[in-house]
Amino acid sequence: MKLRRLIAAGLASVMTVAALAGCGNSSNGGDKQTSSDGGGAQTEGSDAGNGEMVDLKWVLIGNGMPTNYDTWMAKVNEQIADIGVNLEVEVVSWSDWDSRRNVIISTNEPYDIIFGHGGNYISDINLGAYCDITDLIEANMPELNEMMPEECWTAMRVNDRIYGVPTYKDIAISNYAIWDKELVEEYNLDLASLTELESLTPVFEQLKADKNDYPFYSKNDGIYFIFDAYDQLGAGTQVLGVRYDDKDAKVCFTLEQPDVFKALQTVYEWNQKGLINPDAATLSEARVYNMWRIGQGWASAAFTSWGPQMGKDVAVEKVGDTILSNDTVRGSINMISTNSKYPEKCLQLLNKVNTDTKLRDMFYYGEEGVNFEYNEDGKVHKLDKQWDIPGYTNGTYFTVTQEDKDEYNQFEEIKELMDEAVSSVMLGFTFDTTNVYDQIANCSEIWLRYKSEVMTGVQDPTVYVPQIKEELMAAGFQDILDEAQAQVDEFMAAK
After folding, report:
1. How many angstroms separate the CA atoms of 144 and 154, rounded?
2. Using CA atoms in the order 224, 230, 233, 234, what is the torsion angle rounded to 10 degrees?
């Protein structure tokens, strides 16, 4: 992502957030820009540098607690002793995450830092769960603040305040068409000419005839990627959005936009021609093998993820722009509890985890000597392929040591993609849905009833899109459009 000027003060208000008890503001300023006047006194009990050790608890998601947790944690604590922190980490399993996180937030269970994402960021702020860190960033995480693109901080703003530290990783969407390489070579396919859905139809017809298989084997979300070009404004429904490159910032009913509608027509054509598995609309999981599909990632994922998962060599071709938005940045966030006694120490810890390579490797790969070791070239050699804490939950990719099995540095590739990303015109805007909450809930329910069959081509969009729109309008969709547009116009005027 090309660094652009930070969106100026005057970002649209999402809600009025009361001053959060226990999270005062530092006098040292905010992020890279001059922070807004937040007021408030320093947190009682905060330890900004008196030399005492403080205990912190960090709640993360993963495969559950590592079997070597005690020895790993001891080594981590040795590495962070210089910042005066003694850390406890709770790794919640994927299957238990939603219920466990809800219990923690709703009951005010003690913790200091918790992993989250855009799906709960705004709602938890509404509950007063997280500390306003705007005025604590610069003084307590200077190295990470310098590393972090300004757009990332912009995306985290709610009512022009920051309540979370985003993970600087693949914080933009890059879509790739993924092909079975054998088929590409057999048919001498020019992948660069096959990045539009309609261009695939004759190829798919030939593959179906020759291979007696479905070229597009889909589950119930179908061509989900067609909505990636639309910023959904934090409303959580695909039928509402602003196209990322629309300088006029027109809030629209996405299904009837020319690019989306054309894609829906194409997938309907595929379905009618038998190019899609007939049970697609009812499947929650797709099969492992695909002749063709779309995936989010970067080119080398063909060798590291997509191909190995499929058990085949694959060829890939980038589709469209790399897009940066609130949603993409908010995919991985760490927030500080409003009840934490030590918000400054929390930020100092996150700063060190992100910028100290040895410590970063400990969170990314596990315990040295057990899960990994460094070879003579200084690269990481894994001893145990299983590490229970996913790297994206706790820190940047760009200070992680490269694995010895890789001939290339995938993290550098990711960074290059981020540097060329196009920022959504809505970056920094979050829709305040207070006045249309019920309408959004009702409209979301309507779309869910139709979604699977429309997205997998079971139903004709020329018939069903108007029908969906009619039902949405009866449920108050125009109210949503009007409210969103008014807020968007105010936001754009202040830029």
Report:
1. 15
2. 20
* Strand ranges inside 350-395, DSSP E: 372-374, 380-382
pTM: 0.81
Count of alpha carbons within 13 angstroms of residue 59, beta-carbon side: 23
Write the CATH number of the domain with boundaries 173-228+259-327. 3.40.190.10
Cα 374 to Cα 78, 358, 361, 439, distances in angstroms: 19, 11, 10, 56
Domain locations in the chain as residue ranges? 54-170+329-423, 173-228+259-327
Say which residue the tokens 């894609």 belong to. 263
- Strand, helix or coil at 465? helix
The CATH number of 54-170+329-423 is which of 3.40.50.10240, 1.10.357.10, 3.30.10.20, 3.40.190.10?
3.40.190.10
Digit-coded pLDDT (tens) for 132-163: 999 999 999 999 999 999 999 999 999 889 99
User: Which amino acid belongs to residue 14?
Assistant: V
Encoded amino acid at 387, one letter: W
Closest to 387 measured CA to CA, from 405, 369, 408, 367: 367
Write b or e for each residue in 87-114: b if 16 or more Cβ atoms lie within 10 A of its Cβ, otherwise e.
bebbbbeeeeeeebbeebbeeeeebbbb
Contacts of 258 (CB under 8 A, 6+ apart): none
Alpha helices in 150-276 (DSSP H): 150-155, 181-186, 201-211, 258-272
